[in-house]
Input
Amino acid sequence: MVYKEESLFALLPANLHDGVLHSHQGLSYGGFLLLNNAKFNEVLPAFKTLLAYLDSSGIKTFNIKLLPKIYHTLPSDEIDYLIFKLKAQITRRDISSVIDNNHKLILESSNRKRGIKKGLKNNLHIEANNDFEGFWNEILIPNLQETHRTSPVHSLDEIIHLWKSFPKHIKQYNVYHSNKIVAGATVFETDLVAHIQYISANGNKQILGSLDYLFDHLINKEFKEKRYFDFGISNENKGEQINEGLQSWKESFGGRSIVHDFYQIQTANHIFLNEVFL
Output
């Protein structure tokens, strides 16, 4: 927490691992969180003070994930400029697929149109019922285990705890066929963005059209008033590669790419911020 006099001015969600500070290894996005009235001539000394504090505390390396621009409630690229002055090194760059609802593209994909028609033909039913247990245990965990030999970032207990803490911002949408869950999506919602945290379906998704049907509903009905619809990243192997099929599926709905950047800052470089102003 960074204070200006006695008032809280900025926050840094972060964790320390092996002597390196990360913002944040347990969050999709990180960054230096500022008040709406924060001005550049206040942000600079606040960030410099933070880095000087880390340096004096023996924390020499600070890894920061910048918040993608679509999540800013106001223009706020102060840290982008400061990391340039700090000679920070970019260590990773992901791309996320996003629909801008102010400039929504017309759905042209014949595959998506067929998938939506399949969903209608198969009488699929979508519920916003927050049945995390059904989605996690019957769809998400088995799918990730079979496809990637991995598990969800959040356990079932963790996602339920988060939902109970932020019930207005976390929602679960499940798709049912003959009263059996066949697909779902977990949505993290902000004032401007509907962010898809998890997407998964059973092995019949192509036959039923379950994901196409669900995302048509989410994009064009449930979240049509949001400024942005964020499918999330399609990167694997620490950003070095992209799942081409997943990326293509998101783009076929009209998603277009934005970057999510990761930087490494040497905290001793805070001295480079001493002479920014003329």
Summary: Residues 140 and 200 are 6 Å apart (CA to CA). The first helix runs from residue 40 to 56. The first strand starts at residue 2 and ends at 4. The chain has a mean pLDDT of 96.
